[in-house]
Amino acid sequence: MENIFIVVVILVVFFIFVQKRLVKDESIKDSAYKRKGPLLNMQETAIYNALVSAVGVHGVVMSKVNLSNVLAPVATDKKGWFVANNRIAKSYFDFVICDPRTLEVRVAIELDNGRELDKGKVERQKLLMHVCKSANIPLIGTSIKHSYQVGRLRRLLAAHIDLIEPSKEVRFCKKCGSPMVIKVANQGDFKGRRFFTCSRQPQCTYTENYNVVFDEGEG
């Protein structure tokens, strides 16, 4: 009786092994693939090319980067970590601009597809705003356009990435008329970002956001 049981067990194990092997071989041989085409649609390609032109050699533009590849949950226990990680596991940044040397994300870009707000879109926006604020990653939103003014993108991104040389950006203090200089914040919520300040400091304390409102005629 024991011999029969052993034989049956061996046959069952052999059958399972052969079945898995055949299924594995068939899944490889019978599966055919084709390329799906461009990774980005026409609207996404337009903003991608504009971003590449704007950052030049000062940044690397990547698209559809999973949030979990950029962010890590800060939690004191395993359950909290898994809950926080699951919130971002299936979502992604439309575009990110990375440091060209380290590929560390410097800026995130959210492309508004123009569709009406629904529950999914609202939840996504809330999630992106929360994680970017929490991780201190600048989040810039832009709507779909047929073309983009590279000059405006450069000015917008220059608050976070060294794109424009100080000698090419001349401003004068609106309080005393003196030339302004560019400095980098070393503390607070805007740590690491560039801003203009009056060259007469500490006599004049006027400061100005680096990406101040653009002129309409700028290209």
Automatic annotation (TrEMBL):
Residues 38-157 form the DUF2726 domain. It holds the Pfam family DUF2726. It comes from the Bacteria. Keywords: Membrane, Transmembrane, Transmembrane helix. The chain crosses the membrane at residues 6-23. The keyword Iron-sulfur does not apply. Gene3D superfamilies: Bacterial Topoisomerase I, domain 1 (3.30.65.10). This is DUF2726 domain-containing protein. It comes from Vibrio amylolyticus. The lineage of its organism: Bacteria, Pseudomonadati, Pseudomonadota, Gammaproteobacteria, Vibrionales.
